Amino acid sequence: MDAQTWPVGFRCLLLLALVGSARSEGVQTCEEVRKLFQWRLLGAVRGLPDSPRAGPDLQVCISKKPTCCTRKMEERYQIAARQDMQQFLQTSSSTLKFLISRNAAAFQETLETLIKQAENYTSILFCNTYRNMALEAAASVQEFFTDVGLYLFGADVNPEEFVNRFFDSLFPLVYNRLINPAVTDSSLEYSECIRMARRDVSPFGNIPKRVMGQMGRSLLPSRTFLQALNLGIEVINTTDYLHFSKECSRALLKMQYCPHCQGLTLTKPCMGYCLNVMRGCLAHMAELNPHWHAYIRSLEELSDAMHGTYDIEHVLLNFHLLVNDAVLQAHLNGQKLLEQVNRICGRPVRTPTQSPRCSFDQSKEKHGMKTTTRNSEETLANRRKEFINSLRLYRSFYGGLADQLCANELAAADGLPCWNGEDIVKSYTQRVVGNGLKAQSGNPEVKVKGTDPVISQIIDKLKHVVQLLQGRSPKPDKWELLQLGSGGGMVEQVSGDCDDEDGCGGSGSGEVKRTLKITDWMPDDMNFSDVKQIHQTDTGSTLDTTGAGCAAATESMTFTLISVVMLLPGIW
């Protein structure tokens, strides 16, 4: 055969081989079946038929024609069919699982960064504006933001308790350094008495209550959102390794590997036949569909509602401003507080002391405490929106999984000869059932019985987390954020039904109703003294404002939140 006629002859031989593999008549050898069996199952070919023969001991791949299979081959094929099915499920869900797991990790990392940045803002406030109490306040600031992180990532800590603990520890510092400056009692007992008196004398007005309200409204939805993402991963991991019934395993074997017994190694099942088998095998999984749809819808609703004081970025990155307001309010009412503390704790032993201060070190400030600007495109809200837009495409994932597997992986293309469970045919003539348990009563290929306890458990978990998500979704019309015309700032528009802790003005606190102007991200050159000076105009305070750095305290104020494993079982 010359060089020109060889390709033509090769094509003819290949065509004959393909035609032969698509016909069950006249199979003379089992060599191709033996090769595929060894390649697919890594089994030895010893004892396998060399040519078709009768197979009276076969349980599933029964045929009146000679067969290339033995009982042991049939058993191995059944194992392979189940493994193939699990692989198909894992492949189909891999993009969805990656989408959720990647974003869960990204959200956690972003929240950790926000907590660190908010802690730095608060530390800079003390170092730049209240330098004489900065070092002593460092531990309380660090503990507060550590508790914020622990709560967000699933630990059993109470926001009300750690907010109260922060302001309890802040009052002795404010009292000793601002209200009764430069003198203090040497005993720890007196400072503890001042700390305990904080809730009685209310030196910070309604600000602790406002902080509790804002933390509760913003932290709990974010915590629930993260836990819900981890439940989504759990659902996918469970369904990827779902146990298949005996009836399903036999149907998968018949659809996938019984054609091999007749030498039809390249034949695919008919579309209708494939749909009946897959819809039967995945009938219980299809029952997840309405609950999975509700899960994604609830995630979307919660994400949409997390703005204003429900937006954790807003709350954390403006916490230092409320702390500043609290300190200034206590300083403004200093004489009254002095008299109240004297009545409760007595007069201190007046011992002049030197207040510890932040030392000024520009290099450390730049590396350890510098605030960073963030592009609006990188905000947590935008990330959530992009994630939800992608996740929305998978709302009917479990309802359409059987159809997707047949269309993309398993079934023969329209118009091609296909396997109907017994032979090669032009089309499948049996009735094709729908998805879900109720539709399987007339399935000619798979008998579906009862309920799957694993699927039932997943459904219960999805129902529970949907209730949590819906319970954490605030009314979207209560808080609105309106973009300003210029400057990149935002205005928090407060509706008429807000209360004191929302920041609308406290009755009895001496504050007036106001609109709170906030900044998305603090610029590098922001000076806290600007905020302080506005208050000084009204109060005549003489706060220590010398210096512009606080780097000596940097190391002790550095965010130390250890990565916490998300405690998913905590939502059950």
Automatic annotation (TrEMBL):
A cellular component term from Gene Ontology for this protein is: side of membrane
Q: What does this protein do?
A: Cell surface proteoglycan.
Q: Which GO terms describe its biological process?
A: cell migration; positive regulation of canonical Wnt signaling pathway; regulation of protein localization to membrane
Location comes to: Cell membrane
Instruction: Tell me the protein's name.
Output: Glypican 5
The record's PROSITE patterns line, in alphabetical order, gives: GLYPICAN
Which family does the entry's similarity section mention? Belongs to the glypican family.
